[in-house]
């Protein structure tokens, strides 16, 4: 069974956006410009494009291979992939660069950060580039399209796609005499199953949840909110859309806490939660396809099932990331547009997906023989891909980081038994609603 190549930086991708964007939103709004920088055109007419890719290890190797191929096949453009920082520090780096007026041509920006970054006039509008590109716009999965669209305009190119599902330890289920869950199961069944799979004497937990209160804590709750009819922001844009559904979702979290069936990870990045699962002491973990390589390497016999829901209908979340283009003059913008168009075409996308642990950006990529082979040869991977049909994304909204921070603290307080769902959500609403009233 071929393993999905690891993407070590994906776990930091999940938590980075909301944490860093809080202090950055105002600074990004400063008018950055490329004035004073060269136009990137060499004496031979070749245009140099600076790329901050944010990847580590396998992801870095994948993007560097693709960049080398692009440079070889596009002699009028040279992409320099040597700059930047790891993705979980990218927003901070980009914010400082925009304020200083010296920034890259392309950067890997978390989808949850795009609205804050796109407030800068130096961010290039890619509506025409993406919608008239070689990959038809509607061929991209809906989460990929929605994550890069702000106020009807495409502000970046989709870079990476994922989804959440539940990975189950087959041995722990068998030891407890329980069958693996099936699609259509409910959150009540999840809570009951987690309780039956918890054995405090043996130090085993039914499930786990990040407990720091960061974006990694938060984004796991949104599918529950959406399934209950709520939304992140209400239709009027002036208040949160989960005042009621959020309480119900937090009641499910509280039930796990009361049963003592949930391992609450006290550190950022969920590393301890994953280590508990990889050591065979956790029965179910809500995660994405990036975690499969580590699970395979640990020798855990596993199965993957869709997220539970309240309604029985499929519901999950995708956390796409972006290639955001910045304006350093007409020549460099044209070259940057050419590169991101090339990079998101199926022939390149499938290589990036397989090497970096992503899901296909488009149905055209999904249809390629290379992806079909990857899908067939990797246990559980088809569940994550199928989930894209029902996946939703967090709103591309400048106030999202503040909403996430408020909800993250609410979830953490319930996980740690410090608050009831009602009190926690009331405090969350006060802070988040205030953020939504700030003029943008």
TrEMBL record:
CDD domains: PBP2_UgpB. InterPro entries: Bact_solute-bd_prot1, SBP, TAT_signal. It holds the Pfam family SBP_bac_1. This is ABC transporter substrate-binding protein. Gene3D superfamilies: Periplasmic binding protein-like II.
């Amino acid at each position: 069974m071929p393993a999905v190549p690891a993407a070590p930086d994906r776990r930091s991708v999940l938590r980075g956006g909301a944490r860093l964007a809080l202090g950055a939103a105002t600074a990004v709004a400063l008018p950055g410009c490329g004035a004073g920088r060269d136009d990137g055109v060499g004496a031979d007419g070749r245009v140099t494009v600076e790329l901050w890719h944010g990847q580590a290890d396998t992801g870095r190797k994948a993007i560097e291979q693709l960049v080398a191929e692009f440079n070889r096949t596009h002699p009028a453009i040279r992409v320099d992939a040597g700059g930047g920082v790891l993705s979980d520090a990218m927003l901070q780096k980009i914010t400082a660069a925009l304020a200083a007026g010296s920034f890259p041509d392309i950067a890997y920006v978390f989808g949850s950060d795009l609205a804050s970054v796109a407030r800068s006039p130096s961010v290039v509008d890619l509506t025409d580039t993406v919608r008239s590109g070689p990959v038809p716009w509607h061929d991209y999965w809906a989460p990929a399209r929605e994550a890069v669209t702000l106020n009807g305009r495409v502000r970046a190119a989709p870079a990476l796609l994922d989804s959440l599902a539940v990975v189950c330890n087959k041995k722990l289920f068998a030891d407890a005499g329980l069958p693996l869950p099936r699609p259509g199961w409910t959150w009540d069944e999840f809570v009951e199953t987690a309780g039956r799979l918890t054995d405090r004497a043996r130090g085993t937990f039914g499930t786990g949840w990040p407990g720091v209160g960061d974006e990694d804590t938060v984004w796991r709750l949104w599918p529950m909110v959406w399934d209950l009819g709520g939304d992140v922001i209400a239709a009027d844009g002036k208040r949160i859309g989960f005042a009621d559904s959020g309480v119900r979702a937090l009641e499910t979290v509280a039930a796990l806490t009361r049963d003592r069936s949930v391992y609450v990870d006290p550190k950022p990045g969920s590393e301890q939660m994953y280590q508990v699962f990889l050591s065979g002491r956790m029965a179910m973990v809500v995660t994405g396809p990036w975690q499969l390589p580590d699970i395979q390497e640990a020798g855990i016999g596993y199965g993957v099932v869709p997220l539970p829901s309240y309604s029985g209908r499929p519901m999950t979340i995708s956390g796409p990331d972006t290639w955001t283009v910045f304006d350093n003059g007409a020549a460099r913008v044209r070259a940057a547009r050419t590169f991101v168009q090339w990079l998101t075409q199926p022939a390149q996308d499938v290589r990036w997906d397989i090497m970096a642990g992503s899901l296909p950006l488009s149905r055209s990529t999904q249809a390629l023989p290379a992806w079909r082979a990857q899908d067939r040869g990797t246990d559980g991977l088809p569940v994550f891909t199928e989930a894209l049909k029902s996946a939703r994304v967090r709103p591309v909204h400048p106030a999202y980081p503040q909403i996430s921070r408020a909800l993250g603290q609410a979830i953490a307080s319930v996980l740690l038994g410090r608050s009831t769902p009602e009190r926690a959500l009331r405090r969350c609403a006060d802070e988040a609603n205030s953020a939504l009233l700030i003029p943008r």
